[in-house]
Design a protein that fits this description.
Blueprint lengths: L2 H4 L4 H9 L12 E2 L5 E3 L4 H8 L3 H4 L24 E7 L2 E3 L5 E3 L16 E7 L1 H7 L9 E3 L2 H10 L23 E3 L5 H6 L10 E3 L14 H6 L1 E5 L7 E7 L4 H15 L1 E8 L2 H17 L9 H6 L6 E4 L5 H4 L9 E4 L10 H7 L4 H14 L5 H10 L15
Parallel strand pairs: 3-9, 11-12, 11-13, 13-14
Antiparallel strand pairs: 1-2, 3-6, 4-5, 7-8, 10-12
Helix pairs in contact: 9-14, 14-15
Length: 408
């Protein structure tokens, strides 16, 4: 319930004022209100349910209290723009240090700490048809860079990538003058052509932005098709290594995978190829289509799924690491040749720094190295003592509770 809604001189604003909803910000806050205008509490909870059950029976029956429908002209919250594009934005709360420089928020920045305040938050930002058409070139090229309009940059930086506005009421922590310019690298995956080309498909795409500061390496040559299809070789194994395996990563998990490749080569003589999985969903759909084709046409040469063909090109086991749950890479498990190990963030939701969370969920560099060595040891490609050495080197306790069940 944004502030302008509560202050509106229409039935919507009158309803909120009558209900005496107190905490209202520019970003909105959840309150539970009965249809008759009685404030029951904040977010849905046992207390809210208890307050509802105390209402007179005639107010609890479906349809017992009638609320007038608002006319389109009376609505304060606008409808999504026709022909618009949704951006999925990952952001973190921001604060300022003693020198007034922006930094990620810490516990001491808040009078009262909630679990969501120190972890990334997901939001959605609308672009009008005119905005996204101005942003996306007419003939988009995978990996191309486009200038972001000042108005979009301001909205994103002030109200999305820095969503502390929820705690500072009416304004973002970043002022307009501080947002001088911005660029956005587009991974198009030919979505614009499929949605708005001469023969558009009945599909939709959304663009995901991560708010994690790290060095972004250049795009390898010749990988455009792999980006669109869901998997491509990001970097070959280092030279001079003996044992070999493949490391799959997606998004920000590339940090742990890249560091693990270096550690494996330097300390254990293991050469790991790095593979970027841009869409396990697409890989699974292609593999299922291949299976169906083979089932319906047993007389023909069997089709081999793309993920199988690609990963069969190099020896050794495969280890996948993701910041999502392990079921995401698991979608292609049965088509991966050889052994397949998946590291993901299964378990109860937690709030902490990125490094601490990846350590807890066993998806950081040390655990990727250890999992790789364990897969090689299971294949009798290296000695087991190498795995034990990794436990000591990266301070890993193999008897730690399973993070997926630690809350039980």
């Amino acid at each position: 319930m944004p502030t302008e809604v509560k202050g509106a001189k229409n039935p919507e604003g009158e309803f909120l004022r009558a209900a005496d909803v107190q905490w209202v910000t520019s970003s909105g806050y959840m309150s539970c209100v009965s249809a008759s205008g009685k404030l029951l509490g904040g977010a849905p909870s046992a207390k809210v349910l208890e307050a509802f059950n105390k209402l007179p029976k005639d107010e609890r029956e479906p349809g017992a209290v009638k609320v007038a429908d608002l006319k389109p002209s009376e609505r304060v919250i606008p409808a999504p723009p026709e022909g618009g594009l949704t951006l999925k934005v990952h952001g973190r709360f921001m604060s300022r240090d003693d020198k007034a420089q922006l930094r990620h928020a810490k516990k001491e920045d808040f009078r009262q700490i909630f679990t969501f305040m120190l972890s990334p938050n997901t939001e959605y930002m609308w672009l009008t048809k005119e905005e996204w058409q101005a942003l996306v070139p007419a003939n988009p090229v995978v990996g191309a860079k486009a200038e972001v309009a000042q108005s979009i940059a301001e909205r994103m930086a002030r109200f999305h990538l820095s969503p502390r506005r929820a705690l500072t009421s009416e304004d973002g922590i970043i002022g307009k003058k501080e947002v001088k310019s911005a660029t956005m690298t587009l991974i198009v995956e030919d979505g614009i052509r499929r949605m708005y080309g001469p023969e558009p498909d009945d599909v939709f795409y959304y663009l995901t932005l991560y708010n994690e500061n790290h060095s972004q390496p250049p795009k390898p040559e010749g990988v455009d098709r792999g980006i669109v299809e869901g998997l491509y070789l990001w970097a070959p194994a280092p030279e001079g290594t003996t044992s070999h395996l493949k490391l799959l990563f997606s998004g920000t998990a590339n940090l742990a995978a890249r560091e693990a490749q270096t550690e494996l080569a330097e300390h254990y003589g293991v050469g790991a190829e790095l593979w970027s999985a841009t869409s396990y969903k697409l890989l699974r759909e292609e593999a299922l289509a291949a299976e169906r084709c083979n089932r319906l046409h047993p007389e023909d040469e069997p089709r081999v799924p793309l993920v199988t063909r690609l990963l069969a090109s190099a020896p050794g086991p495969t280890v996948a690491v993701t910041d999502y749950m392990s079921l995401v890479p698991d979608q292609v498990a049965r088509w991966v040749p050889g052994s397949y190990t998946v590291l993901g963030t299964d378990g109860y939701g937690r709030s902490d720094s990125r490094s601490a969370l990846r350590r807890f969920f066993e998806t950081d560099t040390g655990h990727v190295v250890a999992a790789s060595l364990s897969a090689l040891a299971a294949a009798d490609d290296i000695e087991v003592f190498a795995v034990q050495d990794a436990y000591k080197r990266y301070d890993i306790d193999p008897d730690n509770p399973d993070p997926a069940r630690s809350h039980l």
